[in-house]
Amino acid sequence: MDKSERRPIPLAVSLAGLRLMGAGAVLGLALAVPAAPAQADPPRPPATTQDQPDEAPEG
Q1: Which comes out higher in pLDDT, residue 56 or 27?
Q2: What does the alpha-carbon distance between residue 19 and residue 27 come to, in Å, rounded to a whole number?
Q3: Which helix (H) or strand (E) holds 49?
Q4: Does pLDDT of 58 surpass 70?
Q5: Whole-angstrom distance, CA of residue 34 vs CA of residue 1
Q6: Which phi and psi angles does 41 have, rounded to 5°?
Q7: Distance from C-alpha of 10 to C-alpha of 12, rounded to nearest angstrom
Q8: d(CA 13, CA 2)
Q9: CA-to-CA dists, residue 15 to 7, 22, 25, 37, 44, angstroms
């Protein structure tokens, strides 16, 4: 029995195939995850200046 000859695959073709599979995996995950609306930052209280003390010093 003869072994079937296998052609060597160039590295560039191999890497391109891996990139393509990776892109397909990312796209598949993006489509599988349900879309959620973007959460906005919660409203913050107005900033107070740190230069002025809240209470006047006695004396």
Answers
A1: 27
A2: 12
A3: none
A4: no
A5: 53
A6: -65, 140
A7: 6
A8: 27
A9: 16, 10, 15, 35, 48
CA distance 44 to 46: 6
Q: Which residue has the higher pLDDT, 22 or 59?
A: 22
> For 10-42, how does the pLDDT look when each residue is reduced to its tens digit (9 = 90+)?
888 899 999 999 999 999 988 887 766 666 677
State both tokens at 52. 């002025």
Show the tokens assigned to 14: 């191999």
For residues 18 and 25, give the distance between their C-alpha atoms in angstroms, rounded to a whole number: 10
Report how far residue 51's alpha carbon sits from residue 40's, in angstroms, rounded to the nearest whole number. 30
The model scores a pTM over 0.85: no
Report whether pLDDT(1) > 60. no
